[in-house]
Each structure stands twice: as structure tokens, then as C-alpha cells.
Amino acid sequence: MLKIYNAIGKHRRTILFVCDFLLWNLSYYMAYGINKNNLLLSGDLTVFLWGALIENICFVLVFLLFRLYDKLWRYADIEDFFFAAIASLTANLSFMIATMLLGIFIPDFNLGTRVYITFALMSSFFVMMFRIVYRLNKILERRELAQKPKKRLLIIGAGEGSLSVLSELSKTPGNEYIPVCIADDDKEKLHRRISGVKVVGTTYEIPEICEEYGIEVILFTISQISVADKKRILDACTKTHLEVKIIPNIYNLMTSGVPITSSIRQVEVEDLLGREPVVFDTKKYGKYLIGQTVLVTGGGGSIGSELCRQIARLRPKHLIILDIYENNAYEIQQELIRKHGSDLSFEVQIASVRDRKKLEHIFSTRQIDVVFHAAAHKHVPLMETNPEEAVKNNVFGTLKLVETADKYHVRNFVQISTDKAVNPTSVMGASKRICEMIIQMMDRRSKTNFVAVRFGNVLGSNGSVIPLFKEQIRTGGPVTVTHPDIIRYFMTIPEAVSLVLTAGSLAKGGEIFILDMGEPVKIKVLAENLIRLSGFKPHEDIKIEYTGLRPGEKLYEELLLNEEGITKTDNKKIYIGKPIEFSNDAFFRHLTHLYYAAMKNRKEEVEEIIAEVVPTYHHEKVGTESLPEEIDDSDE
Predict the structure, then answer these.
(1) Contact, 504 vs 370, CB < 8 A?
(2) H or E segment at 581?
(3) Do 79 and 198 lie in a common domain?
(4) Burial class, 29, CB count within 10 angstroms (exposed 0-12 / middle 13-18 / buried 19+)
(5) Cα–Cα distance between 509 and 635 in angstroms, integer?
(6) Has residue 198 been placed in a domain?
(7) Count of structural domains, the chain
(8) Reduced to 3 states, what is the DSSP secondary structure of residue 290?
(9) Considering Cα of 500, then 502, then 504, then 510, what sign does the dihedral take?
(10) What does the pLDDT look like over 562-579, one tens digit per residue?
(11) What is the pLDDT of residues 288-298, one digit of tens each?
(12) Which residues are catalytic?
């Protein structure tokens, strides 16, 4: 059966029509011959042919009007068969009326009541049985291909996305899902069917639908929807404790030719953020990178590599990817080669920002226009126990880089900062605040536009808490959260990079750009949602354990110092923090003392000098060194 169906797939409608045509005429011939006791049609050929002509006209017109060949009979339900029966009876009634009217004009033309009755019974029987057999093919096919139990699927949305999913699922009977029902808020679609799957309720009834129909997996297929409605629906899905999946950007998938089911993924926390994403306006803000030589430090990290991806699309003259870790650099190198080939001029430099001679060589041999500085040590607890390394890399790596950029007349320099630089309680955060001060100091005496970009945690970056939670859920828990009240701001990697690129365009010198990141998120709630989205119940199936604040960690992250005010930019999502005045001479003296203390690995002295340089630094030793690391997700 399966082989036959595959062979006729493209010409399904034509073959169905031809089969129906043969069945009508066979039924008519048998009904006429049996009731006239004349299977050879001797002497009755004219009457038979007139009846056959009318019969075919009536059946063709009625079946086409009833659109029976637009249906996928392999997925027909009881309503479809009832519809076909009505069509067959209507065709027979039309045939009977037409032949009786013809008998008025042709006295010798008379088929007889028994012919009508026999023909109606036989044609209806054959037409219906043919479709039943055709429908059974689907059942046999499923039994043949289903090697594992299928998960009962609820589809959210009764639009083009769900239609495409159902169509593709029907073409691949070996998939792991069996669509059971659909939920949609359009009242006109309620109780109707799409490819045989019924719209049974609205998205407000998702928990009740899942319970009533024994749903195991929920699939979100709506593409055109507000962020608020999307969050509401996904929040309702999480309450079911079922596995929730989503098809991102359904329109692009439908037009790209990529199989839609291959793009089904787990719902991620960023889907639940509940705010409009920040998107880089390339036409408005991307012109300053077109045809320019751009350097990205930390270019193999999560932020740095995304910077390289988005910059590559802006047709730079040359892209330089600098990273000390060759594995990450190699990965982004190969990705850019695959995507852009010879259309993109770029190179990879394996180097440290602490190596002044290598920096001099790179800048002196290439006329660099724009620098994005994403390279940094960012592991908070590790930097607590190694403060001299945070200073060597973050502070003096940045200082050497900005001095080199100034020397070789770079036009724009964008420093990646973090919300942990605001009233820092960790060495890492304090070191990034010093970097911001270096940027402001250099901007005062340089023609280069030095700016910093400050934002919060980035979902999915290297070391992000999200992959850690997912791995803990995968292994059965527990999921570890430092404190039930800990709160963080979150954005996606593309959003963070969008802000960085926009800041480079808006840079006039000395600014600290800040993103409107929406409402902060409780890490406890984030963990609970991830557990629910994975199909488990938090605190029951997967435990949550509180481990205590880690060294240098705060309950609440801030984006502004108390002394800073903000001004708006022409981008409603981006603000500028007012620069804080400080003495360049005093700051430089502190840097000199800090340099020698770090180079001699005097940890306590390093921390004392940091406290002098950064007055808002409030350092407390909390937690233990054995606790897992907190990682600042905002830079590399």
C-alpha cells in the first residue's frame, strides 16, 4: 500500500477522478444489464449510451461542486465520508431527474425504476468503499512505520503554521508525534478541522484541553503574535508541566524550503521574556562599518562571535578576529567561511590583549577603523581568588589596547562592559568599572571616539546559567540556585550585539551606553519555568536547591551608579549614562600602583588599590570557594 501511494502521490487527484469515473460506469453498466437481463446490450445500445452520457455529466458536475477531489482522503474523518455520501446521492438524484426529463422528448427512452435504485446503491457503495480502502492505507502505513510510541500533540494556532506542520507530519509517518487537536483564539475556527485535526478550544483553555485529550507535547506554531500574547500563551503552557516546543520564524521556514519539523525546538527562556526584542537597524546604524577594517577582540566567545557574524553581513573591507583561545576562534572562522566564502575578507589572530608587541604589529600593519573589545576574564568567583589576573587581563589588557588604538588613529573604540561594574561587589565587576574609567580618560585626550556599552546577563552565552540549568534537568536534578530572591536582567546574544553595534554608530566619545532591558527576572522563576518547559514539575520531579550567594555575588544587579543620570538617544531602547568626573592624574597614579601590585601577585594589595580606584566598590567575602562559579554573561 505504501509503495502504491508513493508512486501516485503527484497525480493523486487525477487518479482519484479516473477511479471514480470507472466505478460510476461499471455500476451503471451492471445496474442496466442486470435489470434489463441484457448484459450484452443487444438492441438497447442507444438508450444505454444516452443514459451513460447523462450519468457522467451529472456525477462529474456534482463531485466537482462538492470539491471531493480537494480533500486528503488518507486523513478523512466521519464528516468527510458523510459529505461524500451526500454527494453520491445528489449525483444519483440529478441523474434520475435528468433522464426522466429526457424521456419526455424521447418516447422510447425509459430506464426503469429498478435501474435507478440498483445504480444508486451500487455507485454509492463503490465510491464509498474506494475511499474507505484509500483511508485504511493511512492506518496500515502508520502501523508499518511506527517503530516507537508517538507522543500526543496539541498544536497552538490554527493558521498557516499548523497547516504546514500537519502536512509535513502526514508525509513522514515515522515521526514521533501524532496530532490530536488544535487550540486557537479565533472563534470562527472553533470546532472546525484542519487536515482532519479539530480546533477544540482557545489558548485560555490549554490546561483543560491537555488534561481532556491526554496531551504529551505542546507545539507553538503562531508566527504573527504580540510579545505579550506569546508570553501569556507560553505561561499557560508551562502550567501543564508538559514538554513545550516551538517553531521559530515560521514564514522564513515556509519560504526557504527547509522541512518545518526539522526546526522544531524546545521553548527557551528568551521566549518568555515578555518584551519586544532589540533588532539592529542596519540601514540606520550600520553604515559606519561598511567598507571599514574592523577588529573584534574575544572574537571567538559568545558575544564576540555574534559580533563577527553581524559585522560580516555589513560588508566590511576587512574583519580581524582576535582571541587567545584557538578552538573558539577556529569555530567562528569555519562558520564565516561556510556562510560567506570569498565574499568576506577576514583573518584570525591568536593573541592576547596583554601582548603589547603583538598589538603593535597588528595595528601598524593594518589600518584599523573600528575596534570592538569583548575580550576579558569574566568568571566572578575565579577572579575573587585570582584578583591579580583580573587586573592584568581586564584592566591592563584594555589599557594597552586603547593606547594602541589611540596611537594608530582608530576612529571608534567600543568597550563591552557589564552591569556588575555598577556598585561592584566583586573583583571582576570592579575591574570592568576601571575599564570604563580608562575609556573615559582616554576619550578626553584622544581623537578616537572611546565608548563603553553596559548590559546585563546574556542568555545562552558561554558559561550562562541557562545551559547549566538544562544540564542539571537532563540528569534529573537538582537544579542549583544561589538564593530564592536573586534577580537578574536578561537579554539574548543577538540583542546584546545589536546594542553594541548601535552604540558604535551613536558614539561621539566618552559615553556609557545602557540598554532598556525591561523587567528583571527572578532566577528561581527562571529555573522553575525551564523545568516545566522540559515536561517536569518543579520541586517534585526536579528539585531546586539553594546554595547561598557566591563570592562577589549580589542579589540585585544595577545598570546605573547613583551619580549617573541618563539621557535618551534616538533609539528608544538605548540610553546614555552621564560620565562621572574624576582626576586623570590621580587615576593614572592608582593604575601605576595597581600594575606593580598585580605583576608581583600581591592579592591583598591589589584589592586595596581597587577599593581606592573605585569608591563604589563594596567587597565582601561571601560563600565558599568550593561553590560553582558565577559567570558574567555580558562579555567574553
Answers:
(1) yes
(2) none
(3) no
(4) middle
(5) 21
(6) yes
(7) 3
(8) coil
(9) negative
(10) 445 567 777 766 778 776
(11) 999 999 999 99
(12) 420
